Amino acid sequence: MTEEQRKEIVKRINKDKNKIAYRSILEQMLQEQEQKTEVKKYLSLQKKYQELLKEQQFFDNSEKKIIDLEFIWALEENADKKIACNHEIWLYNKSYYISIDQWGENYLPCENEYHKKFAYNSYICLECGKEIQVIDWKNFEQTHEVLKNQSKKSNRGVHHYRLFFYETLYSHTVEESKQILKAKFNLDIEKGYIRTRKNNNFR
User: Is the full-model pTM beyond 0.85?
Assistant: First the structure.
């Protein structure tokens, strides 16, 4: 190490020491400012703002997204364990048949329940997103409200109808929302958004 190099290091040390001293001065000044009423108010508002910002980071200032996420958190994730889903309305998802090969049994999608090797229907709860497998599909559809579409060409599936249902629930009662959802589904059929077999609507 040369003398010049030593001096450079000493210079850096002294600079750090000065910063420490300055930091102490700033800390004291901050403490004095924090005692002032207006500053206390500012800090309180800033804290509340930061808390809200963190809490609502997923919302993107969108009312629609707020509605969707709050229903999902309450019904699907059930984080606070306060709102239990009653599974009152279901969406038909797919039909499956059983295929047996050298590797064992596999369940594969089929067109409908009348496939010769039909195994079960899959349904999804429009409130919480729970998926179930039902062998006795006729009894299930007679005893539950089921939104059913077996067209492969439909581009309006569970995500579309769940979000529509949530947004309707925000400003209508549960029963009103179900009726509005039924009307929308049947209107979608009339407009050709859904291609479906005869009588494949709400039971």
Answer: no
Euclidean distance between CA atoms 13 and 200, whole angstroms: 81
- Torsions phi, psi of 35, nearest 5? -80, -15
Q: Is the dihedral of CA 10, 14, 15, 17 positive or negative?
A: positive
Whether residue 182 sits in one domain with residue 127? yes
Q: Which range of residues forms the domain containing residue 37?
A: 3-57
Distance, in Å, from the CA atom of 180 to the CA atom of 186, rounded to the nearest integer, reads 10
Count of C-beta atoms within a 10 Å radius of residue 130: 14
Determine the 3-state secondary structure of 113 from DSSP.
Answer: coil
Give the model confidence (pLDDT) of 162-194 as tens digits. Answer: 999 999 999 999 999 999 999 998 888 777 766
Are 98 and 39 members of one domain?
no
Residues 41 and 104 in one domain: no
Start-to-end Cα distance in the chain: 89
pLDDT tens digit string along 119-165? 999 999 999 889 999 999 999 999 999 988 766 545 567 888 999 99
